[in-house]
Amino acid sequence: MENYTSISSVDGIAKLNVPPIRNLQITQSYHELSLLLSSRIGPCANWCTFATWASKQAGQTIRQEDLSRALQKLLKSSKEVSSALTEIIDAALAKGTKLGKERITEIVWDTLNPKAAMERAGAAVARGNQKVYAEIAREFARFAECCMMDEVFDANNIATFCAELRPGDPPNGQHYLRHAFMRYYQALFEPSPKAKAELILLANLEIGFHEQTRLQPEIAEALEAAVEDPKLLKSKLLDLFFPSSPWVRYVGPVFTALFNRPSPLEEAIVRFAKQARHRLRLILTDHFMELGFPQGACLPLGEDLKAKFPAVLERLENPDLLAFLKKIDPTPDSPQQTGTIDWADLPDRLHFIADLFRCFHDAPILLSGPFTTTQVEAIKTGQFPEGKL
Length: 389
Description:
Distance between the termini: 20 Å
Structural class: mainly alpha
Shape: elongated
Largest sheet: 2 strands, antiparallel
């Protein structure tokens, strides 16, 4: 089967225009890059290891996998949303619509279109998945080709590799990637298990910081991919409620001008839109706030990690690592208070990731494959595999 660790393979995968297949190939490529690096650096989790499982999780959103139906079901079960919908029905009937309650309800849900919210979220996640992979996986492939087979430390070689990375902070600069690959290179030749582990953890965190900064727009967009603008929703609903009475669209502004407030129907629609947007945001956040691991394990991102630091990383000594943790981890000596309330909050997200990387540094199970052998064969031929993904 094709090797997904070469620069040309990474470039080819990144250019695919079929998001579900591209995501599967990205996930498998991360896994193969992870194994390649661990074969030289040791059987511990590197950044590509965590990226494998994050990408697999992203695939569920990209493919949607019955989430649209679940989304609408959960939305309809909200008392606040149902109450706001009742206000719309009553106000529309009072204004003289010829439609019955059932038809008004149907129109509101069709116009709100929760499925479209899921599609927008999936599209944002797919773009983020592609963007990060195209940049960072390519650097891992280049590192493997240029530096990883060195038998002795070659300062000139790693300097040449790092010179191609842009100076400056993310999102445009690659300053943290430069530092991270230097740490990985140092770890290749570090004889002390503790010093090696701390170099790898620091490299993972620096790449994670770069990655999450770059992903911020897509993560925020995915979580905000809820109801469209209330004004647009209001306009659409008024047209559908009163198809033979276009003058109704102009009553609202007149009502506002006369009484300094929107009409009851307009107020009801806006309330409904706000309640639906809030509920959708909570549902999408709940969906995003978990990370699937091997053998069906699942980490809820909104809860503190129920794990301990491995012995080799329990007490840290590397001054650069200590300084970096001070920057991103408010509780650097404990996995407590790691639960993230809002995944779109970059500092909260980085806090969780810092402890995630540290707690699962030497979890060999994370190096297991994300797909079965049969699924990998299908993925590498550009086919959608059978079975649970």
